[in-house]
């Protein structure tokens, strides 16, 4: 498969908010082969005339972080397997957490382009906070606000260059 962008990251960083901003049309989340509903949401998006599919992960999250090993790992790995580009989302409000580091370790294993997207950079002070996410070890950190849309054009330009 190609032209698939997966949004991964711990709960509450704003993945679904960004997904909803990107997609024009949401797709069914049924996995026909197994007959079970998948916990990944698919949507169609386009930018600069290029069409792509976006996968939002983590709709299953119950609020507990204890399920990381069993559920999130499985879901994220499946999404990463399908993706051509990975958006690894983190949160400028809370800053870097241990769970972010767990996700980083999973994402790092995948040999695909990874963009760290520091969301909730709603003002210059919060954007400045995003610097700490370079500690995750990826080349570049994009700061965005999914709520206002600021910064989202820059990351989309970068994504479609890789599709
Ligand atoms: P997910 O669990 O990663 O899918 O996160 P959600 O998209 O459900 O968002 C979690 C919370 O963060 C919600 O209350 C959102 O309204 C809020 N949120 C998302 N994006 C932003 C943002 O750019 N700025 C701020 N201040 N809040 C945001
Ligand atoms: Mg969500």
Model description:
- The structure is a single chain.
- By secondary structure, this protein is an alpha/beta fold.
- It has a single domain (4-161), classed as Rossmann fold (3-Layer(aba) Sandwich).
- It contains five helices and nine strands; from the N terminus they run E-H-E-E-E-E-E-H-E-H-E-H-E-H.
- It has helices spanning 15-22, 72-82, 98-108, 124-129, 152-161; strands at residues 4-8, 25-26, 30-31, 36-37, 40-47, 50-57, 85-91, 114-119, 141-143.
- Helix 4 links the parallel strand 8 and strand 9.
- The longest helix has 11 residues, at 72-82.
- It is globular, with a radius of gyration of 15 Å.
- The chain binds guanosine-5'-diphosphate and magnesium ion.
- This is GTPase Der.
CATH superfamily: P-loop containing nucleotide triphosphate hydrolases
Low-confidence stretches: 30-37
- Coarse structural class: alpha/beta
Number of helices: 5
The CATH topology = Rossmann fold
CATH architecture: 3-Layer(aba) Sandwich
Which percent range fits the helix content?
Answer: 25-40%
Whole-angstrom Rg: 15 Å
Which characteristics define this entry?
163 residues, alpha/beta, 7-stranded mixed sheet, two-stranded antiparallel ribbon, 5 helices, binds guanosine-5'-diphosphate, binds magnesium ion
């Amino acid at each position: 498969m190609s032209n698939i962008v997966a949004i991964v990251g711990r709960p509450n960083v704003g993945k679904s908010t960004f997904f909803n901003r990107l997609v024009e049309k949401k797709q069914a989340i049924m996995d026909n082969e197994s007959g079970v509903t998948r916990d990944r949401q698919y949507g169609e998006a386009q930018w600069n005339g290029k069409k792509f599919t976006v996968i939002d992960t983590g709709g299953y999250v119950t609020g507990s972080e204890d399920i990381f090993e069993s559920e999130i790992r499985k879901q994220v790995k499946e999404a990463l397997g399908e993706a051509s580009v990975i958006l690894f989302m983190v949160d400028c409000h809370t800053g870097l957490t241990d769970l972010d580091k767990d996700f980083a370790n999973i994402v790092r294993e995948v040999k695909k382009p990874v963009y760290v997207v520091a969301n909730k950079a709603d003002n210059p002070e919060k954007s400045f906070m995003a610097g700490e996410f370079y500690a995750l070890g990826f080349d570049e950190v994009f700061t965005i606000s999914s709520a206002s849309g600021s910064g989202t054009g820059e990351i989309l330009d970068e994504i479609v260059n890789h599709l």
